[in-house]
Design a protein that fits this description.
Helix content: 55-70%
Radius of gyration: 17 Å
Shape: elongated
Number of domains: 1
Strand content: under 5%
């Protein structure tokens, strides 16, 4: 059960893998495609790195932004497309931070990233806030929000996914049970 939980977290939040990278430009250049030149210029990567650093200075978690920029590069996205992706990611992260603040609840970086992932997949700010509001104040929400993101990301309606996660939280379900509930849910016909 713990393996399922870990797999769900890692699959739904690729930002955790990018957190070890100091410089996005250096990380992209050192990947398996190292023999080839990066598609974007050093100047383009400098602008991308500067945007990420600026967001981080404003308190936005940088790891998911680095991850999404690297993913954009891997998918051969243009610099302007990568900046668009970063803008969307930053908006989701800031919305997640605001959602926790409006619920008078401190959030870990992992909780903010998980909430932003749910928003990015299509859950509304109100749905994320509802999950946050219904959870006991001392309960970490990484798994609940990651499960919400995973369910919406694979096609469940945000309303249904929110209901499933809220039901699990109301029942006092363990994180493993919440994560497992994502496996049993299916898209409505």
């Amino acid at each position: 059960m713990q393996k399922i939980l870990l797999a769900l977290i890692l699959i739904s939040s690729p930002a955790a893998l990018a957190a070890q990278s100091v410089s996005l430009a250096g990380a992209v250049r050192s990947n398996a495609l190292a023999p080839e030149q990066p598609r974007l210029s050093a100047a383009a990567w400098a602008r991308i790195d500067a945007r990420i650093a600026s967001a981080a200075e404003r308190g936005v978690p940088a790891a998911p932004m680095r991850s999404r920029a690297a993913d954009g590069e891997a998918r051969l996205a243009s610099e302007s497309r990568i900046h668009s992706i970063l803008e969307s990611t930053e908006t989701d992260l800031r919305t997640a931070q605001r959602t926790f603040a409006r619920q008078s609840r401190w959030a870990s970086e992992a909780e903010i990233i998980s909430a932003a992932d749910a928003l990015g997949y299509g859950a509304s700010e109100a749905q994320v806030a509802s999950v946050v509001r219904r959870a006991p104040a001392d309960r970490p929400l990484v798994v609940a929000l990651t499960t919400l993101a995973a369910m919406v990301g694979r096609g469940d309606s945000p309303e249904r996914a929110t209901g499933v996660v809220e039901g699990q939280l109301a029942a006092g379900a363990s994180d493993a049970s919440i994560a497992a509930s994502a496996g049993g849910s299916r898209r409505a016909p």
